[in-house]
Structure formats: structure tokens, C-alpha cells
Amino acid sequence: MVSLFNGMGGACAMFISLSEEIKWEGAPGGKPSVLAVLTYSFPMLLGIVLGAISFTGSLVAFGKLQGLISEKRFAGRSRK
């Protein structure tokens, strides 16, 4: 349950960043400056990527803890 709650936080961060990025890209005013991209667009991109990673990792953790995902599904990796 805790892993799902954590995953929802990551998903919320991802969706909020994605909606802000879409809203910002659709704003009138021409081409944004490099400073505007670095201070506004780059943090939103990080929010999208890190939120997606957090959400996916939490789903995998939930699946493993509930026994829905076994080690056999990741046969390409070997443990040493």
C-alpha cells in the first residue's frame, strides 16, 4: 500500500509537470530565450522524468511485494 501511495505522488508530479509544460509551450509570445528554457522548461522536464521513474518503480515494488512479479520475469539479469 505504501509503495502505491509513493507511486501516486510520482504520477502527480509527472502529470502536473506535463500539464505546465504543455501550457507553457502553447503560450503566445514567440520563441523563448535560453534563460527562460533553463529556468522554466528544464525543471518541468525533470519533474516528468523523475515522476515517471518513481511511479514505475513503485508499481514494480508493489508487484514484487504482492507476489505478482517474480524473479523469473527478469531472466536477462543474473545475480552474483
Beginning-to-end CA distance, first to last residue: 30 Å
Count of helical stretches: 2
DSSP E strands, number:
0
Summed up, the domain count is 1
Proportion of residues in β-strands: under 5%
Helical coverage, percent range: over 70%
Cα shape: elongated
Element-by-element helix/strand order: HH
Q: Return residue spans where pLDDT drops below 50 for at least 5 consecutive residues.
A: none
Structure class: mainly alpha
CA radius of gyration is 18 Å
Biggest sheet overview = none
Mean pLDDT over the residues: 78
Please describe what this structure looks like.
This protein is mostly helical. It has one domain (2-69). 70% of the residues lie in helices and 0% in strands. The protein is built from two helices and no strands. The chain has helices spanning 2-25, 34-65. Helix 1 runs antiparallel to helix 2 (34-65). It is elongated, with a radius of gyration of 18 Å. 9% of the residues are buried. The model has no long low-confidence stretch (mean pLDDT 78).
Walk me through the topology.
Elements (H helix, E strand, L loop, with lengths): L1 H24 L8 H32 L15
Quick structural summary:
The protein has 80 residues and is mostly helical. Helix content is 70%, strand content 0%. It is elongated, with a radius of gyration of 18 Å.
